């Protein structure tokens, strides 16, 4: 069994701040300084129950600074392990135990919400309510949280992208010792509609009787090696082949364990391999659960079933048998879906329930999806091609035989889909899915690996006054390269693998080792250099004919976007100080662009002004100052309302707080150039 610890943390993080300071004499236009920012995080750590002492030791060391500190604090515990270990928890942590209504499944420990009672209390929460609350939270906040498992697919995991309004209704099937089935219609409306006593406990119990395996995972390893056809009676064993009148294929199971039956005439006991018996047992229980789940889905007119619980835990063999059963009994009409973080459902739900009871206004978790997964500090899915022991090698502290972990960062503002998209449901921000394109995956992973050394060097240069910068950069490099190696072996570990995800992971690794923006100085230099060219560039544009000016403005957009600090060739120019906007313009061959709709754009400009234009900016420096701002100015002069959208985060291909503040000043400054 498993223990899951959940806690909420607010910590200070360094962030760059740009102070605009215009100097008439001198090259420096603004300065960059570091300031502290408050970041809110949710932490989830999962221990095996046999490491309960280590689990409580972790709580003592990291969360209970002193008895005085823990006054007015509450520790909430949910699941069956809370009953089993209540005395030990009370003694180890020095707490008083308060037991509420619960249904037994697993153990979750939630630390950090404050109450008025003294001394420390340990509450027990309703397990089922917590499971559903946790499930809703993950589906709403984490991209690629749910997936289909296809054993013979490439890749095996097919991640699902859903808008919030398409999540409900669904069934949640929790397979613990027994099975509970819930119909979930919204975040607040759900009910238990069925279940069965044949669940994970049945598999574990009968498996222990049939074999010498010690523990649940040993049984699953046996099942992976077994062939159920040596134990099960198939249709062909009865009819000699398929039974066509009823449409029964030859390989269909007619009777689970049918070949193990003995009669009074049998003088010898048949010997069966343990692996074959366990495989038959696993399929039998999965088929039973699958049929009951499908019948409930059809009654409720639902076509999505999410599975979770100790029985699943991301094991390929159980996900395959469950998926096969759902597909068979529903004739392909119902999807069997699994969750990347299903092991944390109860812990998340219990935490949310606790903090909402404490302060509903402050902890309005469900108002909007404002949480994001911290890939750098979280564990990924096990590879379907590796055993659990093999998957531990080389992955580092994020996954060990002792614990997994998940960390979520809270965003300052809610994230919503752009309402102007023509097809909101069908829009995918990532053009390449590296989990499916092996050639592209190999290329991009190699690019990021090769660039990591230079990136670490630039991180050191960005903090010349910090004595430990080189040591921290080495730790960043080691961790990021280890993560890239993991993704090479198991591309689906963190959902759909994309270039954006690789960039996000690198940013999070940098932040972990206190590097805010390795390119901050370069961005400052380029911003200042571009600002000095802006007046001359605008005057040049104004001297051109109307039609020629439109072409040069579009070329300026393309030339500005060339300056992407993540590109190999640009990195070489950057290293040798040869970045030049004018040269970039000369490299653009007229009308030779991959997608060329300039004539259509020009024809549209000959008509009336657009009511509104939204321009999404990639980079600071040349890109926005000499590329975006001139065309923005042109549209404004036509009477068009223009929104310039910038990424509000520190990163390689974005502006960050400091650049945005400078850009705001530039907008005010070039207002004088609008007639």
TrEMBL record:
UniProt subunit comment: Homodimer. Interacts with PKM.
Catalytic activity: (R)-4'-phospho-S-sulfopantetheine + H2O = (R)-S-sulfopantetheine + phosphate
One CC-aspect GO term: nucleus
Pfam families hit by this protein: ARMT1-like_dom (PF01937), Fumble (PF03630)
Keyword ATP-binding: yes
Cited InterPro entries: ARMT-1-like_metal-bd_sf, ARMT1-like_metal-bd, At2g17340_3_helix_bundle, ATPase_NBD, Type_II_PanK
Cofactor list: Mn(2+); Ni(2+)
PANTHER family: 4'-PHOSPHOPANTETHEINE PHOSPHATASE (PTHR12280:SF20), PANTOTHENATE KINASE (PTHR12280)
Record key words, sorted: ATP-binding, Coenzyme A biosynthesis, Hydrolase, Manganese, Metal-binding, Nickel, Nitration, Nucleotide-binding
Name of the protein this chain belongs to: 4'-phosphopantetheine phosphatase
A biological process from GO: coenzyme A biosynthetic process
GO terms of molecular function: ATP binding; hydrolase activity; metal ion binding; pantothenate kinase activity
Main function: Phosphatase which shows a preference for 4'-phosphopantetheine and its oxidatively damaged forms (sulfonate or S-sulfonate), providing strong indirect evidence that the phosphatase activity pre-empts damage in the coenzyme A (CoA) pathway. Hydrolyzing excess 4'-phosphopantetheine could constitute a directed overflow mechanism to prevent its oxidation to the S-sulfonate, sulfonate, or other forms. Hydrolyzing 4'-phosphopantetheine sulfonate or S-sulfonate would forestall their conversion to inactive forms of CoA and acyl carrier protein.
